[in-house]
Design a protein that fits this description.
Elements: H1 2-37, E1 41-52, E2 55-58, E3 61-64, E4 67-76, H2 77-82, E5 102-114, H3 118-129, E6 137-146, E7 152-156, E8 171-175, H4 177-180, E9 188-197, E10 211-220
Antiparallel strand pairs: 1-4, 1-5, 2-3, 6-9, 7-8, 9-10
Helix pairs in contact: 1-3
């Protein structure tokens, strides 16, 4: 009877420790995936740039000179928008005699590029920072980026602003978004990890053995869809068995 009680107590202890370790391993993997999905990312945009040339003087007053549009300008969001380089595609030299020049841009498309190497390092650091308490060993087994660019294009898109004409011809090389979006898990990073728990009852009747927990976590990279103004739809679940 005493042996049975000891075995029952040991079993409950081992199972409880295992559940805690598995939950902590999942939390560590979630943190690792989130860190990886936000590390080493570059956001690209395609924009249309508008220049309203104002109005010209006529015998009856002022009439509109019209609007010039440079369509499909591609670049990183940091350069074109944050640093204001979109202004290089405006044409202030078209301003007419009555004045009223206006310039603006519209974002047509937006997508994300993952830079190679950054995600694995970030995942490893964050997983170890949240390492399971009861784990004898615990580590990231794989970091799967969905996905790295495989198709690139180079386009010529010369500046239109009079102050930057001397910088032409101007070329931009960018990852093709349609190719990236063929992956149903894009844009995300999938982290798989494992943790081993050493039994407290090693050698006791040969019943209890070291146990392993395998966990999977997916970190998504979200950005606003310029067509709807809403956050993009989450990618498919990569950790769900198929």
């Amino acid at each position: 009877m005493i042996v049975v009680l000891i075995i029952a107590f040991a079993g409950l202890t081992e199972f409880g420790r295992y559940l805690i370790m598995r939950e902590q391993a999942q939390t560590a993997a979630d943190a690792a995936a989130l860190a990886a999905a936000t590390s080493g990312t570059k956001t690209w945009v395609k924009i249309d740039v508008y220049t309203y040339c104002g109005a010209s003087r006529t015998k009856d007053g002022c009439e509109s000179c019209g609007t010039r549009v440079v369509r499909g300008v591609i670049g990183t969001e940091r350069d074109l928008i944050d640093r204001g380089e979109w202004i290089r595609y405006t044409t202030p030299q078209c301003e007419c005699s009555c004045g009223g020049l206006q310039t603006w841009y519209e974002i047509v498309d937006r997508w994300v590029e993952y830079k190679r190497g950054d995600q694995a390092q970030a995942a490893g650091r964050f997983f170890q920072a949240n390492r399971p308490t009861f784990a004898e060993t615990a580590d990231v087994r794989s970091v799967e980026v969905r996905r790295y660019p495989t198709v690139w294009e180079t386009v010529r898109q010369d500046y239109a602003h009079i102050d930057y004409l001397n910088a032409n011809p101007h070329y931009v090389t960018y990852p093709v978004p349609d190719d990236l979006r063929q992956d149903p898990f894009y844009p995300s990073v999938v982290v798989r990890a494992e943790a081993w728990m050493k039994t407290l009852w090693d050698g006791f009747l040969g019943i209890f053995r070291d146990r392993k927990a395998n966990v999977c976590a997916q970190g998504d990279t979200f950005y606003q869809d310029p067509q709807t103004g809403r956050w993009i739809k989450p990618p498919d679940e990569a950790c769900v068995p198929r």
